[in-house]
Structures are given as C-alpha cells and as structure tokens.
Write a sequence for this structure.
C-alpha cells in the first residue's frame, strides 16, 4: 500500500516536472486563469447594454422628445433620429437593434386617452437583447407616458404596488456571473486537455510501455496523473478566484472558498478521469484535439453556465445531469454567488463524487485494456 | 566549381547549447568527391557538425562555406540546398510513417520540383537498385529498420545531390542490410563520381572503407587523414584500436581490453520459451520459438530487422500477450500483473523511452523511487550509475539534447538501477561508440559472472555476438540456429561469424531478397547537378505539401470523420440546447395573507406559461434557504392584510424576490414579474371598473427577421461561424508542431521549400475539408432545422471560404509559434472558444461590449462572418449590402499568414 502511494507520488511529481519544462504551456495556463477571465468577465454586457436604437419621430411633440431623452447610457446608446427609409436599411445592415416609430398626433391622442399605438421594431437575430431590451423599452414608454400624462392630469395611483428586489447581485452586475462562469470553464478545459494530452504524449513517445515493465500498475499511472494535473488546476483556480475575481474584478464572494475548492477538487476528479478516457480513445494528438472540442463545447454550453438550464429541452436536461459540469456550475453559483453552505450544497458534492467514480472506473478499465 | 575545391570549409565554428559546448572553434576543410567519415565518441559534436553543414541548424560563431558559398546567407542556402541531401540520425526519422514507400519518394521528388516523368524514372531506378520494388505500396512505418534506412537514403538521393550527408545511417540496421546499404552507396558513387559523401558512423569496420576520416573529441578535431594514415600515426592494427589510441589520456585510461571469464556451474533456468507464437492479424511475427536461458548466462539474439526479436522480448516482459505457446521467467509463467517479477527484471526497449522532459538525474531518481530503492541507498546508487555509465557531465541535461549513444547509456543505467536478476536488452548498444560499448560490456560481464545476472540481449554487432555464451539467430519469426558463437561459426565453415550469418540469412530468405546484385541507378538524363536556378516560389513544392497533408488526413479517416460528424453533432446540440427563451422558471409564494385576494394574485403567477410552481414558503428563512440552494429563482411575498388593504384602497405592496446570481435570467424574471403585475391590474380593472389607470399607450412590438422570436432560427446562423472556427483551427493547429515534436521538420529545414510554401501547402487541405464542413452545416440548417437561406448563397459561400482561410490560418499560427502539441491544443482552445462564443456577437452584440473583449470582438474574424451568415440567412441580403464585412476577413488572411511565416524558423536554433 505504501509502495503504491509512493509510486503515485513519484509519478505525479514527474508530471509536474514535465509541465514545468513547457514554458509556453505554463504561460498559457497563467493567461487562461488571469487575463482571459478578466477580459471575458468585463466584456459581458448587462442586458441591455449600449443597445443601439433609432427613432422615427413623426409627432415631434413634447412627449416624443421626452421619450427619446429617456433612452440613456449605459442601457442605450444615444438614439439616432432617422426617417422611414433609413429604418429598414439600418436594421438590415445591423446598425440598429431597435427602432421606434412614434406616429403623428401621438401626444394629442395620448392626452385624449385614446391609447395611441407606438411601433417598436426589434432585430430578433440579436437574441439576448431582443427579449430583455424590448421589455425595457416598453417599460420606459409606459412609465414616461404615464409621468407625462400625470403632469397634465394629476396623479392616479395603482391599486396594488409591486417592488422587485434582486437578491445576491442587486445591480445585476454581469461581470460577477461572467467571472465565475469563466473560472469554471477554464477549470474544465484545462483539466481535460492536460490529462488527455499527457497520456497521448506518453504513448507517442513510448514512455508508457516503459512504465509497464516496471512495478507500476495502470491504476497508479492514472491516479498520478489525476492528482498532479488536478492539483495544478486547483491551485490555478484558487489563485484566479482570490486575486482575479475577488481582487481585480471586485466580485464579492459570498460563501466559503474552502467549500468551493473542495467542490472543485471533486469536479477535477471527474474531469481528469474524462481526460484520461479521451486519451485512451484517441489514437494520436490530432484526434485528441478534435475529441476534446467535441466534448468540451456541449459541456460548457449545456451546463447551465451560458443559458438557464431549466429552459433547455427535458432530454437535454436529463443527459446533462450526468455531466459533472452541470453539478459543478450549480455548486459554484450557490456557494460563490448565493453564499450557500455545506448544508445546502451537499447533494451536489455527492453527485460529483458519484459521477467522478463512474468516470474514473470507466477510464481505468479502458486504460487497462488499451495498455495490454 | 573546380572538382578539387573542398566541398566545405569550416573556420572557427563554435556551437553552444545553453551551457554545453558542442563544437569548439573548429577549423576544417572537407575534400570533395570522396567519402569523408566522422568518427569519435558519442556527444563530441558529430551530429551538430553535420546539421550545420546541411544547413539544418543555425550557425552561431565562425564561418562556414559549403559548395562555394557562405551558409549564413539565406540566399546561398536556398540555392545550394537542392544540391545537398541530409539524412538525420534515427531510424526513418525523415520519413512519413503513414505514407507508402512510393508516396514518400514522390513527396521528396516534388519538393525538388521534378516533373512526373522524371520522378517516376528516378523512383523506379532507386527502388530497383535497393531491391525495394516489391514494397512500393507498404507504409513506411511498417518497414523494418534496415528498409527504413534504405528508403531514407532513396529519399535523400532522389535529387542527385552533390553532397550527401548521412548521420549514422546504419545504426540499428542488421548486417545483411548494412552490407546492401554500402553496396548501394558504392554503386551510386561509381555512376556519380563527383558526389561527396559525409558520414558519421559508430561502426569502425565501415569507417575502414572511407576515403578520409576525421576523428573528433569534445568538439575538437583530433586527427584527419586516410584510414591508413590514421592507423600508421597511432600504430594500431585496427581502427577500433586507433580510435581508442586517439582519445585523450583520461578517457583512454577508462578503457581496458575486455576479458570474459568462463562461466561457473549452471544454476537453473531463468527464461524458458516453448512454441512461443505471436500473430498480428494474418502476419506471424513470432513463429513457434523455443529457447531456454540459464541463470547467469549471456544469451544473444541476432537477426535481420523485423524478424521478431523485439516482439519476442516484449512477450517475455509481459508487454505483449502471446497468441500461443508458453513462457516462464524466473520459474513462473509470464504474468503481466506480477509486480514481484517486474522488480526482478530490467528491460530496455529499442527506442528511447525515458522521459525527455526530465533531466538525466531526474530520470534516474524517478526510477530509483519507482523500484523502491531504500531512501538511504537511492542517492548513492544514482552516483554509482553516473560513474559507471560516465554520465556525470550530462547529469543535469535533458535527454533530447544528448546524442543517441549517451541516451542509450542512460536507458541502460535505468534498466540496471534496481539490480535485477534478469536483464532483457533490446539493441542496447545501437549508436553507442566503441569505447562506451566496451565499458558497457565489461559491466554486463561483471553482472553475469559475479552477480549471476541473466542477460538476454539483442544486437547487430558481430563482436558483441561473439562475446555471448550462447546465441540464437532469428529470421522471419523463426529461430534458425542456436548455440555457442564459436560452434556456429565452425558449423558453417566460415572465417567470421558475420559471414556465417549472412550465409544463413541468404539461405533462409532465398534468392528473392538478394537485392544487391541489382543495377545501379542510371545517371540522370536531365542534369540536376547543375541546377541553374531555384525558384523563390514554386507551386509544385507547395502542392507537394498539400498532397502529403491530404494523404496523411486520408490515412487517418477518424480525424476527417470526427470533424464532419462532430460539427453536425455540435450544431444539433447548440441549435437545440442554447435556448434564449427563458421558460420553466421556478417560483414559490410566501403568502402571509391567505385570503382569496392574495390567492388571486398568486394565481396570475402560477397561470403563466413561463413559470413552474414549487411548494409554498412559510418564512423568510425558508425563502432564503431555498433560493440559495437554487430550488427557486423567484419568490413572491404577499404581505399580511393584503386583501383588507386592497378593499380599503390603501395600495398594498407585494414584493418579488429575484435570484440575481445569473443576471440574464434575473433580468428576464424582473420583466416577467412586472408583466404579471400589470396583467393582474388589468384583470382587476376589468372586474371593477374604476378610475385606475393601467396603460396609456399600446406598444406594438414587431420582431423582425424572426417573427416568433424563436431561438433556433437565430441560433443556427450563429452556430455555423462558431463551429467553422473551432474545428478547422483545431485540425490545423497540430500540422506544424507535430512535425517539430516528432522530428520530420528536418525535411523542411534541408529542402528548398520556403516557409510560405510550407504553410500554405499545409493549409489548403484543411480549407477544403472545412468547406465540405460548411456545406454539410448548410444542408443541416436548411433541411433538418428548416431555417431557410433567404439571401444570396454565393455570397455566403464566398464569405465562408475566406473565413475558413482565416480559421485554418489561426490554427497554423498557433502551430508555428508553439513547440509542444499539448500547448498547441490548449492554445487553440483558448484562442477560439472564448472569442467565438463570447466576443463575436453570438449572444450579445459586439457594439454592446467593452474593454479587451470588445477589442478582440472587433478584430476577430467570427464577428464579421457572423454578420454575413445572419444577413444571408435571416435578412435576405446579398453581396452588395454585406461587402463591408468581407474586407476585415480579406485583411486577416495576409496578417495571419505573415505572422505564421515570422513565427516559423527555417533552421533549427
């Protein structure tokens, strides 16, 4: 037993040394966990953010001027005044996501209580903005016209009022979520690539065969890669969270970092096993590169880190509940953004352990059979 | 050029690898028109010298003139490289393993701009003269070592070089093939007497036949002259002795004449094989092999390349399962899982298989620990081995920076580190210099005679075979003869063991293999020896790389298949999986009023198609807990006295709690909540007509291009650019770096192909594959997703083509800049995943972004192609309206290519 542990330790140290011999790779890892996280967290716009809007104002009244003035940064870029012809062309070429058409006599009809119509055109190819932006614009129109009408007619209160309170991220700062998502993406990406490629490299350079004549078992070979590569990623993610996310991006981390890192370790157990598995399936490095892409993209996009999971088709949800990223994303969001404790996230930890164990076992079996 | 001008003139040439000095102010003149041999111990700079002369390595200090020009000048290198041929060290190092013999030769012929007819004449000539015509369709990777070297030589000779440089061409090649190899060279020289040949060799019997020798040590020249002159100067009878005599005192003193004491009493059987057989498909690699090796015996294994020696050894170590038969090691049947036996056996494989990322010392230390040497003995044992194998000086170097011979010593040191009872050594001395070989044998003899270690060794050196107690000769999977070397020689009645063996092998293989009687290649009709002009740019050379890359892609159909099927799969996933329609949101109600009025309000929420109701809440603490756990993303709190206040007209206030962890969802939730509230007010107004105002304006919202606001029609045009960036870039990303890692990049260094030809040639097949991919995705979009192409299809295809050139160009850039395949895969993933998914406008318009992301987004090709696909798919646009977005793509192509050209080096640094 101590023999085995010794082997695992030594082989793992060997992996770390190999990594250190590839300075370009080290630089890439550092980039992935620092600048890359920063830039993608800060680039993520609030919705809507700096949306482009143009107005065809056929009324040229006080209320239409008031409406145009209501579209303000950071939500909207200053509206452009255009005519009908420019409207179609502008939308075709993607110049404006929204155009608003205020008809003639709008103000008169409004004050007369005729419920005048106002036309809002939305470029629906810009999916994320189309939805929430249209909602925003409608709200602005309603509240501005109401306020304007009030100024003329005196107030009229509503029978029930509603307040909306946003928990955990009151200003809906998109960079909080973006930063965490990016850390998760990099963790998954790096751990799968490092272990998978390390295995293929051993095969391409013939060193795996050499290991097999020594008193070392496939289990030890695999565990060594799992711990060594897992450790690298764990340290990198701890660093990214502390210094990039909390320090540089000023994201207030709600929950316990230790709990998150424990979850990360379990997640890494599953993803590094997945890397080994892919390494046994691919015959060469070029094949591995493609395989990794094919696995990573669904893992990242369908895990719930890009779009809400509950809105996905049910079969996708079911299949993705077998992926470690799904549980890890939920765990990370709960702990880091909502401040959940062990009492709340323990089912996720259990899920990660179970998935990791299955992946590990599958990878080990394949490794054993491909090595013989 | 005058025939008597030297072929190369070196003046004060020095070369450093980090702190190690490989060549030390070398001044030397190499005569033309003869065979010049470089001899000397391993690691004295022979290979460095050869690669400098070949132009494969960058000059550091000193002047080097080759074929009448300065090798520092790129122009001169370009002009002379068609006249130089270089065969690097290592079996088949310059070959492409998945390509057939003919395809390898074709590739080189094209690189030298030969037309079809010339190529075919030359190839059939060369193959006939090497006796390889029968193997014309066999992949190079499946040839035996000797045949690989012959093919390598053919590839080097295809353009009739004036200077042929061979770095240990016969290392690891069996005696029969070796003699055929030299016959071939002799015949070629007979037909082209003006050709100069420069050879490094570890075989002194070969060096004997060269015209002129250079003896080197420690980066300096010890002696030059004809073999005769060197023998006279050192007063030696053989070159082997002369070699030792030339060494400086401290190295010579380590060398002693090898004496093998007789073996003592037999003490049992160490290895036994009975009818051992191994098949690979139909091919019988090892055919009912029997032998029995006694404990303490040195048992030799000889035979031609590919005869099954390595396979037999691998079966005994448990690396390969056997098809039939029995084998036992140390009295136990071979069991690959028996750790106990592994601890008692040391194995050294033919190819170097230690960690090239670890230094010599680290490799030793790792193995000491894996074999569980006690902690107090480990360091001592390492020092012992560094001593024994003369590795102290290189202890902190990386193996790949070391010459082959030194690497072999390291492998051997590792194989004996745990003092095994049995050593299985597969050609351990290939490429090792004579002195080191003797030292190594002295050690083997000591192990065998003093410690009773059993040694099972394969070799191509006859003098080593003679040192064995007993030996077997193998051919084509069968053991031909076994016995003591002396007895075997006598049995055949020959003067030397080598002659006896060649005799046996010729007899066994029949007249078929007797290729050496074939004709010499005919003198070229078109004189390539005076190549007037080497074009700066040649389409044929470019296409030569294209053809080769295409063939390699075809030989690995899994890769092409993964790319095509993979993109289709990903498109399905992304098309269905990315859903911007936020639905099925979970909510719960904390109703503190519990009246019909409050329940009516809550009904508005549960009736909405966007929401799924979860069990009601009873307290704030529970609200908090369940929201943290992600169980609910919205909570509605209705205050106590809601109904009463409503009736009184006191305007009660309800509160919505939204989980803000995911801002996009939270935003939508907020919108929904407000909508639902408004709806409630309208219902209320309808039931009790009062003066309450609800909505003053009727906003008619029209969703253009995608009237139902379905995600799918919006997503499909966006997914195509993303996939066509990631997959083609990843396919191309390993194209260059793989050659760097596996060694075939040398061909690029020493052939007239330019950087641009090399890169573009490699890029073309991936652009073509990408285009097929684009068509597949378009078909999928139209017929499976039913998203019609409303605009101009030619515009889309043209944009796609440009875009694919950008995507593959990006992959090539990564590949030219980086040195390892792992880094290239990771680098490509980083360079494509985030920018395409996040910065290119798939989810959020680029105009809405800020900071570095916005900057990348504006430059990145995906952004522009995305506008083109969306324009053509959804907005029915054509070229006139989209032309502005072609410009950035057109600009990106030369920028990426130029960056790759700058990142790539035409010589090894």
């Amino acid at each position: 037993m101590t023999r085995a542990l010794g082997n695992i330790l030594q082989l793992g140290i060997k992996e770390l040394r190999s990594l250190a011999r590839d300075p370009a790779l080290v630089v890439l890892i550092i980039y992935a966990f620092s600048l890359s996280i920063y830039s993608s967290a800060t680039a993520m716009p609030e919705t809507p953010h700096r949306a482009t809007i143009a107005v065809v104002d056929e009324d040229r009244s006080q209320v239409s001027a008031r409406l145009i003035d209501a579209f303000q940064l950071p939500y909207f870029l200053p509206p452009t005044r255009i005519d009908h012809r420019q409207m179609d062309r502008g939308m075709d070429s993607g110049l404006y996501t929204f155009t608003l058409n205020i008809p003639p006599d709008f103000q008169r009809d409004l004050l007369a209580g005729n419920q005048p119509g106002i036309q809002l055109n939305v470029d629906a190819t810009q999916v994320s903005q189309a939805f929430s932006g249209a909602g925003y614009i409608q709200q602005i129109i309603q509240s501005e016209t109401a306020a304007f009408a009030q100024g003329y007619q005196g107030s009229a209160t509503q029978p029930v009022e509603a307040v909306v309170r946003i928990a955990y991220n009151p200003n809906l700062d998109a960079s909080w979520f973006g930063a965490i998502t990016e850390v998760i993406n990099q963790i998954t990406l790096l751990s799968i690539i490092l272990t998978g490629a390390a295995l293929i490299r051993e095969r391409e350079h013939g060193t795996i065969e050499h290991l097999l004549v020594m008193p070392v078992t496939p289990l030890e070979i695999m565990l060594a890669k799992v711990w060594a590569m897992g450790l690298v990623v764990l340290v990198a993610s701890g660093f990214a969270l502390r210094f990039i996310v909390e320090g540089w991006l000023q994201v207030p981390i709600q929950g316990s970092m230790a709990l998150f890192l424990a979850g990360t370790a379990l997640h890494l157990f599953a993803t590094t096993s997945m890397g080994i598995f892919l390494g046994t399936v691919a015959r060469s490095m070029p094949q591995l590169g493609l395989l990794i892409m094919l696995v990573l993209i669904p893992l990242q996009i369908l895990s719930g880190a890009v779009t809400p999971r509950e809105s996905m088709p049910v079969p996708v949800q079911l299949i993705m509940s077998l992926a470690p990223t799904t549980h890890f994303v939920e765990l990370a969001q709960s702990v880091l953004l909502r401040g959940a404790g062990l009492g709340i996230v323990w089912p996720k930890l259990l899920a990660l352990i179970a998935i990791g164990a299955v992946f590990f076992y599958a990878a080990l079996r394949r490794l054993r059979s491909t090595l013989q | 050029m005058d025939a008597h001008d030297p072929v190369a003139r070196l003046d004060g040439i020095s070369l450093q690898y980090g702190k190690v000095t490989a060549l030390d102010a070398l001044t030397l003149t190499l005569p033309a028109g003869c065979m010049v041999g470089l001899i000397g111990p391993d690691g004295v700079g022979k290979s460095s010298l050869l690669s400098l002369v070949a132009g494969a390595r960058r000059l550091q200090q000193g002047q080097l003139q080759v074929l009448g020009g300065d090798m520092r000048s790129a122009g001169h290198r370009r002009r002379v490289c068609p006249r130089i041929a270089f065969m690097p060290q290592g079996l088949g190092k310059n070959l492409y393993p998945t390509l057939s013999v003919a395809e390898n030769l074709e590739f080189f012929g094209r690189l030298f701009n030969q037309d079809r007819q010339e190529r075919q004449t030359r190839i059939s000539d060369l193959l006939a003269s090497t006796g390889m015509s029968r193997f014309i369709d066999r992949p190079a990777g499946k040839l035996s070592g000797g045949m690989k070297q012959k093919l390598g030589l053919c590839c080097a000779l295809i353009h009739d070089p004036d200077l042929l440089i061979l770095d240990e061409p016969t290392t690891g090649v069996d005696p029969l093939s070796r003699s055929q190899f030299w016959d071939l060279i002799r015949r070629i020289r007979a037909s082209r007497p003006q050709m100069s040949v420069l050879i490094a060799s570890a075989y002194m019997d070969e060096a004997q036949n060269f015209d002129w020798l250079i003896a080197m040590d420690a980066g300096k020249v010890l002696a030059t002259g004809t073999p005769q002159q060197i023998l006279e100067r050192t007063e030696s009878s053989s070159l082997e002795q002369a070699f030792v005599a030339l060494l400086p005192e401290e190295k010579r003193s380590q060398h002693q004449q090898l004496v093998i004491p007789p073996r003592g009493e037999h003490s049992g059987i160490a290895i036994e094989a009975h009818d051992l057989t191994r098949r690979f498909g139909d091919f019988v690699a090892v055919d009912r092999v029997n032998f029995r090796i006694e404990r303490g015996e040195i048992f030799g294994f000889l035979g031609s390349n590919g005869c099954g020696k390595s396979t037999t050894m691998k079966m005994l170590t448990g690396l390969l399962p056997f098809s039939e038969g029995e084998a036992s090691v140390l009295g136990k049947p071979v069991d690959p899982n028996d750790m106990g036996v592994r601890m008692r056996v040391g194995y050294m494989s033919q190819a170097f298989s230690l960690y090239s990322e670890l230094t010599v010392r680290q490799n030793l230390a790792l193995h000491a620990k894996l074999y569980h040497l006690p902690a107090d003995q480990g360091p001592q044992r390492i020092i012992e081995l560094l001593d024994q194998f003369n590795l102290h000086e290189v202890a902190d170097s990386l193996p790949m920076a070391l010459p082959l011979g030194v690497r072999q010593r390291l492998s051997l040191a590792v194989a004996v580190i745990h003092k095994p009872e049995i050593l299985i050594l597969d050609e351990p001395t290939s490429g090792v210099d004579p002195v080191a070989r003797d030292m190594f044998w002295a050690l083997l003899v000591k192990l065998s005679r003093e410690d009773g270690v059993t040694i099972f060794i394969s070799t191509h050196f006859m003098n080593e075979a003679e040192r064995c107690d007993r030996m077997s000769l193998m051919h084509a999977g069968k053991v031909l003869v076994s016995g003591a070397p002396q007895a075997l020689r006598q049995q055949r009645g020959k003067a030397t063991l080598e002659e006896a063996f060649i005799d046996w092998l010729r007899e066994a293989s029949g007249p078929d293999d007797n290729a050496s009687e074939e004709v010499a290649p005919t003198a070229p009709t078109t004189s390539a020896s005076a190549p007037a002009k080497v074009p700066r740019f040649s389409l044929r050379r470019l296409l030569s790389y294209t053809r080769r890359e295409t063939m390699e892609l075809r030989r690995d159909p899994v890769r092409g298949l993964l790319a095509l099927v993979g993109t289709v799969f990903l498109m399905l996933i992304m098309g269905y999986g990315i859903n911007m329609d936020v639905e099925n949101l979970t909510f719960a109600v904390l109703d503190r009023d519990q009246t019909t009025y409050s329940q009516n309000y809550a009904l508005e929420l549960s009736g909405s198609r966007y929401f799924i109701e979860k069990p009601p809440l009873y307290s704030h603490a529970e609200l908090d807990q369940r929201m943290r756990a992600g169980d609910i993303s919205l909570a509605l709190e209705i205050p106590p006295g809601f109904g009463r206040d409503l009736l009184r007209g006191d305007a009660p206030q309800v509160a919505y709690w939204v989980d803000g962890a995911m801002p996009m969802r939270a935003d939508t939730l907020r919108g929904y909540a407000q909508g639902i509230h408004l709806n409630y007010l309208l219902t209320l107004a309808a039931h009790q007509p009062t003066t309450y105002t609800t909505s003053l304006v009727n906003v008619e919202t029209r969703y253009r291009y995608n009237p139902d606001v379905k995600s799918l029609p919006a997503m499909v045009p966006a997914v195509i650019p993303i996939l066509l960036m990631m997959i083609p870039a990843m396919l191309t990303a390993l194209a260059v770096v793989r050659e760097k890692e596996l060694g075939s990049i040398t061909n690029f260094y020493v052939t007239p192909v330019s950087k641009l030809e090399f890169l573009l040639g490699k890029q073309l097949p991936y652009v073509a594959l990408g285009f097929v991919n684009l068509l597949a995705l378009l078909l999928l979009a139209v017929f499976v997703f039913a998203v019609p192409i409303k605009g101009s299809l030619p515009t889309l295809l043209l944009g796609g083509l440009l875009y694919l050139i950008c995507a593959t160009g990006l992959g090539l850039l990564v590949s030219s800049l980086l040195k390892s395949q792992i880094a290239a895969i990771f680098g490509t993933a980083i360079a494509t995943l985030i920018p395409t998914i996040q910065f290119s406008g798939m989810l959020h318009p680029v105009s809405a972004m800020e900071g570095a992301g916005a900057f990348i987004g504006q430059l990145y090709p995906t952004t522009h192609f995305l506008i083109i696909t969306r324009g053509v798919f959804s907005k029915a646009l054509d070229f006139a309206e989209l032309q502005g977005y072609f410009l950035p793509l057109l600009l990106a192509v030369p920028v990426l290519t130029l960056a790759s050209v700058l990142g790539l080096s035409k010589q090894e640094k």
Remarks:
- The two ends of chain B are 30 Å apart (CA to CA).
- Chain B touches chain A through 158 residues (CB under 8 Å).
- Chain B has four domains: 8-252, 269-509, 539-574+710-903, 585-687.
